[in-house]
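Now for a chain:

_____
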Amino acid sequence: MRQWEQDYKELVKRKKFDHWQMMEIRLGYEHGLNSEQIKIYADEGFDEWQMMEVRLGLEHGLTRNQIELYANPKFNYSEMMEIRFGLEDGLTLEQIKMYADIKFNHRQMYQIREGLDYGLPIEQIKMYANPKYDDWQMAEIRLSLERKLIKSV
């Protein structure tokens, strides 16, 4: 038996994971993650989709500190994915914190991230980074800013 197989058995026997969660843990080992990395997401509080988002972040080279920005069971996997994409795209911590907030759903997070990726100034992003706007309203404001149809306040 390989070492990772022993580590896997030891890890899953102590907690109550379902089949899909156990598969995510096994995939981490098979993809070269170490036990310390896997323990970040081997948490019964995460469903298999959330576990996958943390695993993918680790596999794509994100640091533990970066992962901790979204490894929170309060975020669903789509929200975790939007935060991970921003980190992988090289957004700054200040930029990520603009939308890594449970008050936004994943579609709203996407609109904020798109504005940041486009290079809109923070002041302009703040014009629409507000949970009172749904994602369609955010998109209209963002696109208007990108097309310079409206000016910032």
Q: What stands out?
A: Residues 7 and 35 are 7 Å apart (CA to CA). Residues 106-118 form the longest helix (13 residues). The chain has a mean pLDDT of 92.
